[in-house]
Amino acid sequence: MNVDLSQFHAVFFEESFEGLDIMEQGLLNLDLDAGDEEAINTIFRAAHSIKGGAGTFGFAAISEFTHDMETLLDEMRSGRRAVTRASVDLLLEATDVLREMLIAAQGGDTHDQDKVTSTKTRIKTLLSTNGATIQISSEGVPSPGQNSAGQGWHIRFHPEPHLLKTGNDPVRLFRELASLGELEIRADASQLPSLETLDPEQCYLKWELELKGEVTEPEIREVFAWVEDDCLLEIAPIAGGDEPSPVIPSPIEPGPVEETTAPATQAPEGEGERRTGSERRKAANPAEGSSIRVNIDKIDALINVVGELVITQSMLNQFGENSDIDKFDELREGLAQLARNTREIQEAVLGIRMLPISFSFNRFPRLVRDLSAKMGKKVELRLSGEQTELDKTVLEKIGDPLVHLVRNSLDHGIETPEKRLAAGKPETGMLHLNAYHEGGNIVIEIRDDGAGLNKVKILDRAKERGLVREGEELSDEQIHDLIFQPGFSTAEVVSDVSGRGVGMDVVRRNIHDLGGMVEIRSKEGEGSTFTIRLPLTLAILDGQLVRVGEQIYVIPLVNIIESIQVNTQNLCPVAGKSELYRLRDDYLPILRLRRIFNINGEDIPLEQGLLVIVEGDGQKIGLFVDELLGQQQVVIKSLETNYKRIAGLSGATILGSGAVSLILDVSGLVALTRYPPGETRQAWLENLQRQAA
Amino acid sequence: MSNQALQGSVNTPQSVKRGHEQYLTFLLGEEEYGVDILRVQEIRGWDTVTSIPNTPDYILGVMNLRGAIVPIVDLRRRFQMAEAPYTKTTVVIVLKVMGQSEAKTMGFVVDAVSEVYNIAGEALKPPPDFGALVGTEFIQGLATVEEKTVILLDIDRLADVDMPGRGATTH
Fold this sequence. Notes:
By secondary structure, chain A is of the alpha+beta class. In chain A, helix 2 packs antiparallel against helix 3, helix 3 runs parallel beside helix 5 and helix 4 runs antiparallel to helix 5 (113-128). The longest helix of chain A has 26 residues, at 296-321.
């Protein structure tokens, strides 16, 4: 036991969380009537690995908890227990508790003991009811002396004949036990065959052990963690539940302790013993980087491309050594090949960071199941395009906005079964999550066939809040867009699901922060579709290069609506400072990059430059630049790595010439032109126009 | 043999710490300044930079250093010294500095590179709080080498871009 196991902790946690996901998905997909053996097997195996791992790494509470789940699953698997809704629900709850325990263990914290205890008790209660014909012996005897038998333990260890083949050696187990206390071993050799018939790979012996000393049962179980399923194991206090002998005073009152509190008292003790371990984990934690699992095919593809690059390099090298004007074509060819290799490597390397969106979608079956049950709605969730890949960072950050939109659809979109039937729709509502690639973007759709957005209600609420004037005509899109305003909610009842009006604005902001956008299409009575468009990666963006003075800036293409030449008739100078530009029916503030960025050189007259109309945070502004240059993909570099964040800039990039160019943060620039707080945009614009007149 | 090598490797860092720390010195006008040579990443000629809006005037901008975006500080402006035209000897010393949480790379424009000196720890004198062109907050100590005074700089404080220059504190 001298190996420092903590180095494997990260892997253990990663695998355990994966196992939990498998269990959760398996449980959700479990067909109650069919009793699909293979599905239960999968769940069982996942639970089993978590238990084994937890035992090895000394997370006794986790392995014990998983053990009970495993027992329940085992009974289902062997058909001794029917797969009921109640038991599946309980198992799902238990996976949640297990997840919390794992997270707590990962952070070196203590978990919520009450929750664990109560869930455990419920599993035990279920186990002790019908169908529990076989009991794992120790589970059946929740004796008060379980925590610590002052005197010692009697252990009956009857391994299956194939124990040795699983790589387990009883001698090693005994040696470990001996380190816990005074050990007495009696072997039962009655099954031993004669030497001629003996198979050296079989285990014919049985053992009765007596372990004396202050040892807790979990400690003993930990020793047997790996062989538990390949043997008959019984652990009982030596005195058989009698008063402990007065010679060795027991640290714990042997009086009758209620079953429910017993595990609770035992945990702190276990924690105490593992304190050093958890402290070490805590110390190691900050240094741990996040990791990513990559399909081996992707790596192989990358190696292939690098191989080609090496060939190209040697080809170019040859030309370098023997540069002949006649061989110019060869050089050109080589350069073309180099360009292709570069592009392929770029794609392959970015591909390593790409994960299928199923990582994010997979949580929804559970969410939809729980929420619809809570709200008394019937909902069928359909997922498609789960294999669509996107950048890991984007994937992590899109999770919360997606959850919010799905909850929203469940709460506001899909109606109760009665309402649906009354409206002539099928009783069960449909929620469809879809993902696909389109251009350089990934598109995620959340579609429901619910009530759709209620335009009248939204308008009323908007007027109430002063976002829209009386008598103002708005298009459908403009009305739908209102739900993204901060603090906007039409929910009649504030539920814990949604309706507090914090959210849709945050959803939109989060998506914007990722360089994406969100749209709504909705038809009353027929349902709504939320469409999220995101860039595939955060490392590269499509940019429009613009020139201001001698500086070249990059504007993300996704923000640009159009570029126009200034017509002086549409200019409205306001209070001598701010400038507004009338574009069709809209007044847009003009932001002169030269002024806000203090760029050297004279202002050029507005009519000689160009106005790039950009949208950020739902507002349009006109950026005044000297000239538009080309469009190109740029690699985003952080300014913060070596300097700090600067308002109005989202990063920098390196142009083909090797010069650094700064990337504009349109949302940040919009914030610079923001109307004063407390005033609505409409009132602010009117005010400006009045001043202008 | 291996034992000796081991001893040698154990002793070296200590001897460096005690006595012979090496400093790279550079010139700003008539004055000679030194920085810990282990922090120096490279020295390169002056090249144009991309200016960053709304930053202190001593931040000249950012430069592409083999794919990394590195901010460039004009040390004369940082110390509120008179400006001097950039000449052929003007160089950028790229240094590794410790920011509040992580290491950063920054470039410093100086008039010219001078020498590399071994300066013993005991030869370092604490800075007086007057007379120097530089605010004492940036000075690690003073040392006399070959009859000249070398001002050794505390690079990490120098790189703290939120820290006011000397003019702001003493004038």
